[in-house]
Protein 1
Amino acid sequence: MSMKLNWQNWRFSIFTKLLAMFFLVMVPVYALAMHMNDVGSGIVRNEISSSLQSQIHFYNNSLNKEIDRMIRLQREYVNDDGLVSLGVIAENLDYYERSSIMRQFQQKLNLMKSSGIYVTKASAYIPPIQRIVSTDELSDELPASVIDRLKRSRDRTGTSPLEYEDGRLFLREFYPSLPVSQQRDPIFVLETEVSVIQLQQFLQQISGFEQGGAAIVSSKWMIAGDTDQQVMKPIAQNVWEWVKSEQGNHNGIQTVRLNKQNYITAYEYAPETDTVLLVYVPEFEILGSLKKYKGFLMLMSLVTAILIVLVSLWVYQVIHKPLAKMVRAFRMVESGNLSISLYHRSRDEFSYMYKQFNEMTTKLRLLIYEVYEQKLQTQQAELNQLQSQINPHFLYNSLYLLYRMTKAQDYDNSLKFTKYLGDYFRYITKKTGDDVPLEQEWHHVRMYMEIQNIRFSNRLKVTISDLPEGLRSLMVPRLILQPLVENAYQHGLENTVTEGLLSVSIEADEKGMRIVTEDNGAGMSEEQFAAWRSRLASDKMNAEVSGIINVHRRLQLKFGADSGISLSPGSRGGLKVTMNIHFAEDKDKEEEHYAALNASR
């Protein structure tokens, strides 16, 4: 049962009272805290902005100095005599002279690489001899596709000395610097590859905040220190457009709003490389950990202490006393007093809890009565079942049949019959608990059917299906299957002379299982079916209870009202008795049995 409060009840609820109380007392504290936060936010924001601007200037200056040093060193190598000889008079040099010159120039390239922080590779492309001299290879073949790529790079060279191609960054120096014609190849090209990884590591050092970032931005490319391009890309585009606009500054602080978040961005433009170095920090990361001023903190602590005392006194009256009353009531229930009843004058949650407590004690009294009734009914069921099975008529027939087989010297069937009879009487006479595994019940019914088959000789054809592996351990009330089979023999097939049929089958799914007993015997009339359905639906207890009614009520007590016995006409003209067992009363067992059942299939 869920709690339903209308508008009038909500007005008197504890939550409403607490909300109104805290709202009234926290307004001045909240206003004071907001003022303190605004003051502190302005101070921290200004400090962080100044720090970011100084930091970006330092790093941008260091980076551009390093790039300028690499450019100047590369230009000095353009005038190297050995490199000029390889490009101009290589055909006049023998193999040894050319190899010696290339080795000497490779050493210079290695010196350039080792002296640069961001240099990952230095190369010299010499089209006249179709060779590449680099820090990695002394002499490598120069493909025509590389020459075409270099010529296109020379033609599109703009204001920036940096070239970005396929995720790699280069500094190139052409000789001659101005092409004689668009079709003519350069005599040689010096190329220094700037390490993108090193630049990314350099950028990661700039931002000192966890969710901040830094990047080098150009008109055609961007190198970021982090991989969060969803934030970096729009910020970089915004800053670049601002720098290149007429009113834009080459350096400064700008606030960019993105995805409902403000990002404080410091940037500085480098005209030598036509790039912008920027760093951004989410505003909430800067302002989220403001330290409170000592005076404000002391004032807030004092106000809070006074409020706690006042609210505590009020909560004691509204909550503690009703709770204490309920605790005392629960202790009386623990001592066995279920006649206690609670009443609450206010129309709040405690009124509902007290009402539910009263209903709980009523249900407990009812459940105790039902458990007691179930115990008595189970005992009566076992007693009635035992008396109905061990009766002189059944015992006389069994012993007389054993006598006839022994007299006829049919020792094989006598031994088998004796074994069946012994198993049968041992099961119904042993003292066990109320529940047994379904596997034992199934075996008992099988033994009972074997005994009856010998009695009926060849008059009946009996089948019983195999029990699924997943249902073998299912606990069921003891002696619930035999009454169904016994009913078929005594009332359905007793007068059958030939071609009698009796089948016992089992079906199961995730909701439960069904055990079907069907024969082709006498069956029932419509009046008899109506009478049985009325008896099965009735919850009245009579002094005399038949086997089927007994099984039906025991199943409902154990597995719930959805379980029990149902009767219907059989497909072969006789009677069909279905035992329904519903698993929903124990969800864990239901899943366990159904999983095991699927595995066994």
Protein 2
Amino acid sequence: MDAQIAKTSQSLTSAAEMRETTQMLMQPNANWEKYLTPAPLSIAIMGELVFISSCDDFSINKNPPPTGYNYIKYPDSFRACLMQICNSGWHAFNEAHKNMDQIRIHTAMVPDYMKAAVKILFQGNDEVIETLLPNQLENIRTIADECVTLAEGVEKKYNDVINLIQELLEACINAKHFQGEELEKVKRKMKETEMKKKSAKVLNEQCKKAMEAMKKQMEDAQDEFKKGMDSLPTGWNMIAMDIARGFTETLTGIVNGATALITAPVRTACSAAEKVSTAYHSNKPQEEDVDKVSEMTIYSRSGEILTIIATLKQYVNDGNIDWHNLYDQKNKCTKTTWTESLFQRISEKLEEVPQCKLKKKALSLCNRGINICMELATYQPDKWWDERKTTQLIKKLQKLNDDALAFDCKSKATSGSPALTPKPPMMFKVESNSSGRQSASQKASENARFRIEQSREQLKQTRDSYEKCVEYMEKNQKELTDILVEMQNCKIKDIDFNTKIKMLVTGLDAMGRVKEQWEKMVHFFQIVSTLVKTSLSKTLHNFVTTADDGKKLSYTNRHFTKDQLYNQAFQASNIASLVHMISGTYTEVSSKYLMDKVSSLGRLMAMDKSRPEFLQERLNLQETCQAAQGSILQLVLKNKKEFERKTDARMAKIEGELIAILPAAPPQETERIKEIVQAGYKEGEFGEGEEDYY
């Protein structure tokens, strides 16, 4: 039964399946069509700025900054400033289209490099791996670094437009061109923009910290695994693979956590900026709130904690403890000393994280595990063991397991890690070739049921999140359309100074939303680059220098390092695949709905404003921008239906293939698992064939 469950789970978590699952889980916060909805409005506003620049001109240079302007080139002419904004915007949209298309082409090549890397790992001897693998990883790293440059270039272009609009608004305030309520509105918008800049800075710092934490955990993984295996009790060889699986889940969790940090809505970053500000101006200790990187680091340990608990649970059957197998006759002690040391190691790692409620919760799980191990260690074969004590111990262990399951659900909800994850290739191969048990845990069926329920709840939560995103878009759609219609009805004589300022403020907001996504794009590729650089340095070095274990384990340090190399390359490929989906969407939207408008804006800027063709071009630009706005929303709704179809198909496949091979479970057991999973996710709201590995 265990072998069949393992085989089916592996087929459900092939590289292709995991790429698609990652895209599904990240889609509510990573779908670019949502962020491109304001783009036609941005272009239409620039068209209007060209139109109104034919109005009466005036100087904004009455009260200039002492050091001069950083972005405005012609402060003596408001018209010239408006044209400068249009020109910068035109360049930004052109650069975005060109660079995103290059990113799409670059990321399309990553799966081929991943395929070559996997073949080398699977089929090559050590010398071939040492010689050829770095070339394939280097190819992925080069793509990541090139894409960072491309994304940063576009981010800078949009930033220039935003800074230019902001400086123009500040100049108008200083020149006292408007007063009263309108002045307050503009000041509020400027303050909001400044807050977004602070939040972007906080996000940048968080991403740097996240990548440092990710790099450190990847570098420490080999040493942690070796220490664990060196003290492994006799006869627990199969458990080596389960513990290695826990390490793998930790690394997967921290990479997914870093990715989720980037795709999180901007309100999360704004909240972070506010917390930083509060902490700075307050003397109270800020231990109640956990920063996102610490949260990511703590939650990444959830799979490892579950795995260690499973090593204890396997000795509990039918309300009794299997003392015969748990007691080490040779060393005259229970084998729980080793399990205790694993809990202790995680506790030590958690102590490095800043104090917070979440840390206390994770430490509590470890401490309860340590206490259970210490109680089991008091057992002696020649002394009578209290049955009541046995019952209490089993209850404590079951409660600890249930709490760890809920903690894992919260971890998955926060990081966006898939509920079902694959075993690394070498581990799966060694397990498949081992005689006897396929898993150290005798609770494979219970674990499979938990993962099915977790998958169901995870996909449901993702759909709910996507539904809310689309509802928010539809709500904003009318507001954006109303602005376009209002602009279209403006006659030149009706456009007073306040109307111009209103357009500038709206343009500032719309351009800001598009720029935020380019910032995220930069961080995506920084993660890919960090993953590959760590593989090329520390992990590959470990593979070259690690000798075979003297303990003759079926799953050795070299196996683990090989799997680690695979996982790092796979995670890099997974993120590249997510970006490829995003870049494909952007290029499609840009080609169909933006670039014609950008070209029209270019023509409008070059035309003589006194000719009738100018008014016709202006009208045409407004109408096509309004149509584009609606078309993008239709694309969003179409993608939403496709997303729902994919989530339904994924769940049907998991249930169809995995539930079919599981024995029937008592209704109370099914309900218990369901309650644990739902409680965890509610808190979280806010093959065999080598080709399967690439």
Protein 3
Amino acid sequence: MAGQDFYQVVSTGRMLHAKKPESVTSAVAELFSIPEAQARRLLLKGWVIKDRLSSAQAVEYRTGLHKIGLRVEVCPAGKFDNQRLIAKIKVAQRRKAKAIQKEGSKNTAAVDGATESLSPAMKNIDSRRSKASVRPKTTTKTEPLFSDIKTPVTSMGWRALLGLLPALVIPAVFICAAALCLYGAGLAFWQIPAAVWQGELSGGIVFAGLGGATFCIFLLLLLAFPYFYFPRDTRARSAEISLEHPESKDVFALFKQLSSATGLPKIHTIIIRPDARVFSMPRFSEVMRQELPLHLGLASVASLDGRGTLALVARGLGIYQGKLNGLLAWLVLDGVRRLEQMQWALENERSVLSSTGEPGLLKPLHQILVTCGHFLLPLIERLENLHRAVTRGSAQYLESRADLWAADLIGSAAFAEFAENWHRLVHADLVVAETSREAAAVGQCFENIPAAVAWTGENLDEETRKAIELAMGQASDPWDIFEAADLQRIEAVQQRSLSARMQREICLRTLFADFPRLARDISVISCAPDCQVVENRRLLCASREAEEAQQVLAVYFNRLPPLTLLPLRRPASPEMQAMGLQASIDWLRGKLIELRELREQRESRRTQMVTVQLGAALIRAKVRIQPQDYLLTSVNLATAQEVAAVKRSEFEEVEQQLQHIYAVFYQRLCLAVVAMPARERQQARTLLSHLAAYDVLASHLERLAGYSVSLTLFAHRLSQDLAERELVQKYLALSARELDATFATVESSELLKAQGLDSALCIKAKREPLQQLPQRHQEALAVVGTADARCKYASAVIMEHYQIQLSALLQCCLRREEQLELSPLRLLQAV
């Protein structure tokens, strides 16, 4: 994030997969001291939580919010605007309310405490579902499935013609650039034979001719050729394989029948993927022949009914239906795709000489192209903005036509429900993709990605569903063919009152020869070769024991459990030790506000301490830095070390205060154990001895947390030339050594092994040899991210097992306190 002045922290509308929405909402409400109704709004995609932050503050906010379970992104300040988002939602809701009133139906507003009532279109979905109590009989055959009604999606040739000229602007720019470069190269080279013909050949003319031609060819390779070369060959795609016709002839027959009945382009190849995306990315010749390849995400087949999947297929094909409209779509959509992938290639050190990043003998020229390409990035961004500006009308026209093709199959009345399911599918696909990346960092992958997406979509909690419904109020990007329909698009389709062409339901999964096997095979192909295939539930579900433990901890510590191991020692002060059980609870009740503040300070002070320490280490290593990025005022080493010492003392002071308060919690625990009957007291002391076994891991957890923060900072500030290579390699080695020491400590303890901690660590954060930092920036980032994830996973596994043991003991203590009729710490409802 270096190079930017201010940043904003924006909610992605998603949560960590192991977190409950209720706990996340409560934690957010506590963190910001706001009502829970307002905290739920922070789950809305694109909502600005905090604006105009420095780089260090943005990292702190993101780290803190991720810890409570809310996923956020850091963006340049001012990129998103809450008021604009609220306005869009309100406008869409008012528009829909008017349409519903015209039809004579009543709608009920559900206000969430901030802006908004839920969309009437969303509320009508449940009523439509209840009316459809009798589903048509499902068929697995491909007899005539579509009616012969006239296609209602008319081809507006004049509209496509008007859009062609603006769509040609950017291609014309690159074609002209290529022509000028070729003309310049030819003109410069022609000087040599012309001089020979005239008898005036000299060394200067030869040098000038060859130099000019070389320069023009260099400009051609740098400016023009990437636009035509990168889209097909550079950016790595998801795992894809072509579906063989003999294995799934019924699928091919169904799509052939779809094309014949509707007039959509024919499908000549079906390419299956593990994710939920259904689209076509044809070449120019395929558009002109009206024979397209179809990329079919098996997750959509597993998650949606047959109507929904076929509606997505119809959308993907309908964008390119008709030669004139297909040409317009190819220019509009492929133009954005080419510019985006050209930008990606230059950012990731690719050139036309090496699309894979391995230049070989042409490495010097490749490096020059890459270096010069960095200066082209602002120009490419401006060209993309220009393309979007001149083709906005055409993109919206194509988007509306695609929606109408989907509605042609399922009918306008069912389009709102289809759009809601589509949004949930996109959300589930994103959750599984992110979980898959996290798992890959520790050498694991899903056994069946389509099944994982289907399970995630079916098990969305109510809060997430509401957030998705609110996110539907945001206008979609017309150039992004993967974005689900927003409320405005739903309304436009419903106004057309299209009848459903599909006469009955169909199950697409049964048309494949062996769909489960195909889903597993494509999932295995998509994972890295060194990843271990594990069951879906291991990656998607938190254990029931861990969830129950969190509930007990929330009650005992009043939602303020210790951030690390509970100190198993009573307060040092004799006066504090003399307090009874009720007096200890009363004392803790008066410290809750202070405890909450200290917990927040501890995490921020740790981040500040590690940031300053990294800055000092970089200065010592003679790496050029921006001092403000590391909370420093100068690049003087002595000053940096002095600031680091101050930050460490601040952190230790906060840590000492926290330990003092949690020592009273331990005293409360001990007093409750003493007050138990003999049999229960013996069981409690056994549980206490199990907790004591974790004390040997306290120092390891502290160091792992520090290395994790350091690696996170490296991942965000790693320079393109890897000037800090030696220091990063040092931290990689330290983190790997600490992980090995943690594993060894666990394996040397019989109590910890009996609790299954060693096997859990092997699954979640398995041992790996130390990796050398690669030479390329993106590959280096991947290695740093993997090391960071391993540290976090190891700490999380240890804390999960520890909290399960702790909660078993605390449950006994809470039961004894209730029997003694003691005044509780505080009612949870009062927090």
